[in-house]
Structures are given as structure tokens and as C-alpha cells.
Design goal:
single chain, mainly alpha, about 85% helix
């Protein structure tokens, strides 16, 4: 029997990891939507995307460490930090596809504004795909699947709306 591709993907990522991937994708889409309103070059916006992802990742890791220190004060700090950085890494990884799309758009010569639109719409598709994976993993089919996919895509569509409002 063939395994559903959604099940194959979801089996490799925990629910919490998938949630952090979504968070990273939304952060990247928002940085592009906001940053593309400036006349900065590709490099500047790419640094903004990756920089924002790193700050969010480190913040998530730090918050985890703080919470764990309160819950279990006897745990070693260095080990806790390493664990937190690994645990929160899906957030960082979730935004890298958008950064890669933006970079490729720049390398093939697309204009800044066009590259930003391509990247934001790519993020909508990525978020919809993530919603599909999560819903299928839960056994959702039919119109309920469409609702869950649409709900996930809506976060990317908010970035589209923000980009429209800023330009």
C-alpha cells in the first residue's frame, strides 16, 4: 500500500515542529511584505529575512530556557540552551524556503517588487501545503480538508493584504 505523501512528511516532523515551521514561514512572508515597500536592494531584504528568522528563533529558544529554569532549576544551563536551539530550529527552517525563493528571483534578474510578490505567494502556497499535511495526518478529507488548508493559507494571505496596503 502506498503511503500518503502528507503522512510521510508529517511522520518526520512533530506537531510542535510543524507549528514552528508555519511560524517561520509567516515571519518570512511578513518581512518580505513589509521590507519590499522600501527601495532596498535584494541583499538588504535577504539579510532582513534571515536576520528576523534568527532573532525569532533565538527568542523562542530563550523563552524555552527561561521557562525550563523556573520549572527545573537544577538543569544545566549549557545543555538546556543546546536543547532549546535544536527544539526551536523548525522556526528558523520554516522561513528559509521563502528566503531561497527571494534569492533565486534576484539571481534570475527579477525586479525587486516582482521578486517580493513571487516570494509572498510562494509563502501562501507553502502555508497551504503545511495545512494540508497536518489535516491529512489527522485523517481530514473533503470540505473539512479545504477549510483547514484555507485556514493555513489565510496567514499568508494576511501578508499579501499587508503588502497591498503598504504599496
Amino acid at each position: 500500500m502506498n503511503e500518503d505523501p502528507a503522512d510521510a512528511i508529517a511522520s518526520k516532523v512533530s506537531g510542535e515542529g510543524l507549528a514552528l515551521l508555519v511560524y517561520g514561514a509567516v515571519v518570512a512572508a511578513l518581512v518580505v511584505a513589509i521590507g519590499a515597500s522600501n527601495d532596498d536592494d535584494f541583499g538588504t531584504l535577504l539579510v532582513a529575512i534571515v536576520g528576523a528568522l534568527i532573532v525569532y528563533w533565538l527568542t523562542h529558544a530563550y523563552v524555552f530556557v527561561v521557562a525550563e529554569r523556573v520549572i527545573a532549576p537544577d538543569r544545566g544551563f549549557a545543555g538546556l540552551v543546546r536543547h532549546a536551539l535544536r527544539r526551536e530550529s523548525p522556526l528558523l527552517l520554516g522561513g528559509l524556503p521563502a528566503a531561497a525563493v527571494f534569492l533565486v528571483c534576484g539571481l534570475v534578474g527579477l525586479e525587486h517588487a516582482t521578486a517580493a510578490w513571487v516570494t509572498v505567494w510562494f509563502s501562501v502556497a507553502l502555508l497551504a501545503s503545511t495545512g494540508y499535511v497536518a489535516a491529512r495526518r489527522a485523517g481530514v478529507v473533503g470540505w473539512r480538508l479545504a477549510v483547514e488548508v484555507g485556514s493555513a493559507a489565510a496567514f499568508g494571505l494576511l501578508a499579501v493584504l499587508l503588502k497591498i496596503l503598504l504599496h
